[in-house]
Amino acid sequence: MTEHTHGNCENLLGSLSEYIDGELNPELCAEIEKHLAGCENCRVVLNTTKRTIDLVQTPTENPAMPTDVRERLFKRLNLDDYLNPK
Amino acid sequence: MIKPMPPEISLEALVAGDRAEFARLVDAYSDPIYRLGLRMLGTPQDAEDVLQNTFLNAMIHLPKFEGRSSLLTWLYRIASNEALMLIRKKKPEINLEDVSPSESDEDLKPLQFTDWSALPEDELLSGEGKQTLDRAIHTLPESLRIVFLLRDVEGLSIKETAEALNLTEVNVKTRLLRARLFLREQLSSYYGERLAHEVQND
Ligand SMILES: [Zn+2]
């Protein structure tokens, strides 16, 4: 725990993922927030990392599986007779 | 999280070998499995191999499914194995145990400090932006990419990701952090430049 008491940039970076995912205990969160309040660079890293994750999770035109791929899959599984109801 | 809604699939029927139920399982989960294969291997042909082998394996092993993890996590586990096996076969030089995006830890250090996070979504995900994102994901080393895809794209928890990949939760967290920082850095160079451009033109 002592490694976190100084709350420098490197320590923050090490806990960044868990902080974003809300997996840190309240004391560590408080330490991180204290550091963030005084460190512009870490704020930027936090904001842009969060945004990166948001973007990846934005369901844009996720490549849906082509119908011929589905057909071949059903045939390979010997499920041809269930091809129709989708 | 964008986890697909679990459709009402009867595990009992599946384990008993009910083919109609298996067909429903395939339709419920083939999209995410195909997507995972496509993002890990990069070609539709390889993605299709991963997809077919995953469900063939699932069909064979379902009677022994013990329900210790959820069905979807179990499918992701099979699919991840298939994808990693295919990568080993195609590119034996790749180190899948590697947890670092490159050799040194120094590369974890953020270098870009432009705050582009307030840019509107449609701008961030415009044609070119989306391509940059996809390309960045594709440049992640496979050992990090599989963790990132399961956790951040498919929405598994850390625990489920660890189960699917047979890794410790600590290892998953380490890889996830590296993957996220790596992507952040890539996106920051791209959006940072665009932002600088906009400011100039204002
Ligand atoms: Zn800092």
Protein model, in words:
- The complex is a heterodimer of chains A (about 90) and B (about 200).
- Chain A has 4 helices and no strands.
- Chain A is mostly helical.
- Chain A has one domain.
- In chain A, helix 2 packs across helix 3.
- The N terminus of chain A is likely disordered.
- Chain B is mainly α and about 200 residues long.
- Chain B has 2 domains: about 80 residues, Rna Polymerase Sigma Factor, Chain: A (Orthogonal Bundle), CATH 1.10.1740.10; about 100 residues, Arc Repressor Mutant, subunit A, CATH 1.10.10.10.
- In chain B, helix 7 packs across helix 9.
- Chain B starts with 10 loop residues before the first helix and ends with a helix.
- Chains A and B meet through helix 1, helix 3 and helix 4 of A and helix 2, helix 3, helix 6 and helix 9 of B.
- The site of zinc ion has 6 residues of chain A, from helix 1 and helix 3.
Instruction: Look at the helices and sheets of chain B and give the structural class.
Output: mainly alpha
What ligands are attached or bound here?
zinc ion
Overall pLDDT of chain B, averaged? 89
- Please tell me how large the radius of gyration of chain B is: 19 Å
Beta strands of chain B, count: 0
Give a quick account of the main beta sheet of chain A: strands, pairing sense, barrel closure: none
Unreliable runs of chain A: 1-6
**Global structural class of chain A:** mainly alpha
